[in-house]
Design brief:
By secondary structure, this protein is of the alpha+beta class. It has a domain at 9-63: YefM-like fold, CATH 3.40.1620.10. The protein contains four helices and three strands, in the order E-H-H-E-E-H-H. The protein has helices at residues 21-26, 28-37, 56-62, 72-77; strands at 18-20, 41-45, 48-53. This is Antitoxin.
Length: 98
């Protein structure tokens, strides 16, 4: 489990907020704790940054305040369908033999 550390190397996982995927998986609780206390934690896959684990508070701070869904009527009005003909012919049904 985990990654082997060569002689003379120290395990630096997470010290700078960056984790190898296998280390992040093995120590996920610590990744979450550090995201809450120290800030976003980056996870790398094959040496390339792949994802960031961050606290909900940090995410809420970054997202726009009105990130919810727009109201339905203003949404429909914004579609620009003013010239669309929505008239229908009266449908009187059809005769069905029983």
């Amino acid at each position: 489990m985990g990654t082997a550390i060569r002689k003379g190397e120290r395990d630096k996982s997470g010290r700078d907020g960056t984790w190898k995927l296998e280390d992040a998986k093995a120590r996920f609780s610590e990744v979450v704790r550090r995201a809450q206390s120290e800030g976003p934690q980056r996870v790398t896959v094959r040496g390339r940054e792949a994802v960031v684990v961050m606290s909900v508070d940090e995410l809420d701070r970054l997202l726009p305040k009105d990130a919810g869904k727009p109201a339905f009527v203003p949404f429909l009005e914004s579609l620009g369908l003013d010239g669309l003909n929505l008239e229908r012919e009266i449908d009187r049904g059809r005769d069905v033999a029983l």
